[in-house]
Amino acid sequence: MFIRNAWYVAATPNEIDPLGAGQPLARQVCGERMVLFRGPGGAISALEDFCPHRGAPLSLGRVCDGELVCGYHGLRMGCDGRTVAMPGQRVRGFPAIRAWPVAEYAGFVWVWPGDPALASHEQLPALPWADGAAVKPGWAYGGGHYEIACEWRLMIDNLMDLTHETYVHADSIGQPEIDETPSQTRVVGDEVITSRTMNAIQAPPFWQQALAMNGLPTDQPVDRWQVCHFTPPSHVMIEVGVALAGRGGIDAPDDAKAATIVVDFITPETAGSIHYFWGMARRFRADDAELTARIREGQGRIFSEDRAMLEQQQRNLAAHPTRDLLKLNIDSGGVMSRRLIDRLLAAEAAAASAQIPAAA
Amino acid sequence: MFIRNAWYVAATPNEIDPLGAGQPLARQVCGERMVLFRGPGGAISALEDFCPHRGAPLSLGRVCDGELVCGYHGLRMGCDGRTVAMPGQRVRGFPAIRAWPVAEYAGFVWVWPGDPALASHEQLPALPWADGAAVKPGWAYGGGHYEIACEWRLMIDNLMDLTHETYVHADSIGQPEIDETPSQTRVVGDEVITSRTMNAIQAPPFWQQALAMNGLPTDQPVDRWQVCHFTPPSHVMIEVGVALAGRGGIDAPDDAKAATIVVDFITPETAGSIHYFWGMARRFRADDAELTARIREGQGRIFSEDRAMLEQQQRNLAAHPTRDLLKLNIDSGGVMSRRLIDRLLAAEAAAASAQIPAAA
Amino acid sequence: MFIRNAWYVAATPNEIDPLGAGQPLARQVCGERMVLFRGPGGAISALEDFCPHRGAPLSLGRVCDGELVCGYHGLRMGCDGRTVAMPGQRVRGFPAIRAWPVAEYAGFVWVWPGDPALASHEQLPALPWADGAAVKPGWAYGGGHYEIACEWRLMIDNLMDLTHETYVHADSIGQPEIDETPSQTRVVGDEVITSRTMNAIQAPPFWQQALAMNGLPTDQPVDRWQVCHFTPPSHVMIEVGVALAGRGGIDAPDDAKAATIVVDFITPETAGSIHYFWGMARRFRADDAELTARIREGQGRIFSEDRAMLEQQQRNLAAHPTRDLLKLNIDSGGVMSRRLIDRLLAAEAAAASAQIPAAA
């Protein structure tokens, strides 16, 4: 159901004890109920949210000196899932709880809900705007976090077929030319890329504003592009932008275009719900925090339209579980992504069953 | 579970795009999730609320030029359940979605959730106050729509045994004489009729008001009648009234009585819930819209008392699924109606299994 | 799942028709939906909340002349579960509904959800402050009622291991000495007793106030005790107090100590929820109603902290149904209590299967 041996965005660093009061964070990732907290030195741990003593959620406890103290009977849990101490008890024989690999990277807290032995930081996705844990100089990033009651693959479908913009986001980024222009989908290794180029069109409202912010005229024809990149387990990055017509489109010089990257980290919460970390990375006016806030607000409004649609779609599909859907050319981005996902799920299942020794 | 080859009230015409903004209506009838909208020329269609492309609810879309445009990717659905167009697609091979017969009749939108081949307008119920789609001159009709969390047959039981008026509606139409007077039940073809006559009694508050509205004295003894008519699948019409005592009861001349028809169209929504379209048809002061509104308000209050009781009864029966109930003489209206329903359900089941060819 | 042949607190007397308007009370005990009302003479009855006619909840009806009149069709139910009358009906053949033994005792309404033939008032628990239905002169009692979404045994665990006070109730009755002092558990017949004595410590805030109320100094070392008594099916009584250090602890003279009894009647509602009747009995300033109210308020606040923890623990255990918990020395009170419960459950199951005659 989930690709487990992969990095997922679980939180933003500011969600973990923002007030410094020792408050841990409860979060569910791929069905695993986790508690996240900062251990000694500030490194983040992700443990099962389950006290080995009586099953109380550790997330109701408090962090003291980098240890997570259970709020029920005071068991002190260490960063590695092993009990450190408990008043009046010898804890050496206490069973450990699960600890999952954690990374702070690109302004996010990432967890690996699968086998810790298989995790490495090298497998974190390459992000052009990321500089280790933070954002690279010259770039700006703004975004938000939605909880959405839909199966995670529905969001991938949504993002890998942007014809929906014309209908779901008619007032902001939609325009009929999207429908009218075919998209191309190709698979490059473990990446699915769907792209569409619309030349010599009028920019829709969102992009007119972006042109204005870049000091470019808003009333001239533009070349618009959308290049959607899916990478497993469930990340979608979309290069989007407009350039003055005939200046090279996506390859136009910076002073002739407005370009950004739409960022979508989709983290399954349960079989029917996701944590959706959405945002936008850009290289123009990177120091303009007010602009970042304004873009964030507009993008949040647009993505809340997707949320409404996907939650209703999820309910409708659940009511018609055996029904086939169409796979049109516009769906090939989603279809290819699902094919890649199925291959990885099968590989994980095969590896898991290989670990079970056959009966002698 | 449901009689499918029958007409049910699904909505009132004013529910379907009242603002003319192209808004379709989602409604569930006999477990079928439908979308209702006005096609070209204004005729109403009822289709599956399921876009054949990706399963989005079509009811989230908009009606344009009599076609229903999916709010996700712009598929254009026609009145017959066949896709008309979709940007950039050849739609000829798209699978059709189900379309159910619809009729506008007597101020209601009726749907036939079963086999369309079996539907005809002749099967719509005869209603004395109906003149095609509208209400007959000389009659007035007012009513409302409740969603009630109970199995549909519980409401039939309720309406076919009016002794509950004494307890559930003690302040308005209840009176002890109802309990004290036996009722008679008979079956005439596909109709169950339960009747009760109470002679030379005091009128309860509701009927005192009705007498006054008819210019009749309220302090004199009256003959009161209740004649409940059940017809399949789940319609109950109740002739009710009071006449000055000794003037002929239900057959008294108009100037000696106050008489109305209580109208109950019970439409199963799911196995445990109904759409309940209730109302009252009358022939006195038919042009008095203020009176229609006042009656509607009073009736709505009375029927909300039934709603509370039936929802609790439903929960109680669900908690005691194996328990037998009593079938008393006062219950014979409901018992006979259920017997008729069972016969029709069995006939539908037999016809359905006859359509499955036997293995050679 | 439940010990059925036992007395449980179902309500307080003032919950049953406090306005004298004939209003019955619906309550679920050990999964049984009951209706409680006062019959002729004022004695309380507990019957199935199910009208034998059509299954309406009798709790929606009204009490008239000591009979419970169904709010749907006027069936009159007697205190013994037998129908007394119904308009226009001979009721002799109506099936009886279940009636459970009821006792008014110690300021509570008790019911016996099992076999009525096995119930006797002698089996009501001995309570030092009880004088028949009321509270003994010289004693004061105050308490409240919480509905908590947890399995009933989790509350027993909670009360039989008070080390949680240090963490859950840090601001009021918690103090580190509780953790540091081992407790002793012993079983005496059908009673489990867990006790802890902490000598020459500082009193925590709650007890400082209690000392002041008794006219004792609050800044001197005290000896503190906690003696938890579990008795089946699910009652926990806890003797708690502080005495000036060296004066005899729990056995100190009244003018050197502040002592109370924490009272916990745990009544399973369903498999995953309880009615929790908590309170405090005391012998000092018994006539001070304002003090009773103040203690009640403080205790209510403390016990609402337990409620939050137990509901989360319940949810966490439900999400990890196969997982073993630890049984530490501090848990021995709960472990011994559960062992006693298991023995009684097995005895009830054996007695029930012995009543089923073997096939010949």
Describe this structure in words.
The structure is a homotrimer of 360-residue chains. With 360 residues, chain A is α+β, with helices and mostly antiparallel strands. In chain A, 22% of the residues lie in helices and 32% in strands. Chain A is built from six helices and 20 strands. Chain A has helices at residues 152-160, 165-168, 176-180, 205-213, 289-319, 332-354, and strands at residues 8-11, 25-29, 32-38, 44-48, 62-64, 67-69, 76-77, 83-85, 99-100, 102-105, 108-111, 130-131, 134-135, 140-148, 184-188, 191-201, 222-231, 235-244, 257-270, 273-282. In chain A, β7 (76-77) and β8 form a beta hairpin. In chain A, α1 (152-160) runs antiparallel to α6. The longest helix of chain A has 31 residues, at 289-319. The mean pLDDT of chain A is 94.
Task: Summarize the SSE layout with pairings.
The structure is a homotrimer of 360-residue chains.
Chain A: E1 8-11, E2 25-29, E3 32-38, E4 44-48, E5 62-64, E6 67-69, E7 76-77, E8 83-85, E9 99-100, E10 102-105, E11 108-111, E12 130-131, E13 134-135, E14 140-148, H1 152-160, H2 165-168, H3 176-180, E15 184-188, E16 191-201, H4 205-213, E17 222-231, E18 235-244, E19 257-270, E20 273-282, H5 289-319, H6 332-354
Antiparallel strand pairs in A: 1-11, 2-3, 3-4, 4-9, 5-6, 6-7, 7-8, 10-11, 12-13, 14-20, 15-16, 16-17, 17-18, 18-19, 19-20
Helix pairs in contact in A: 1-6
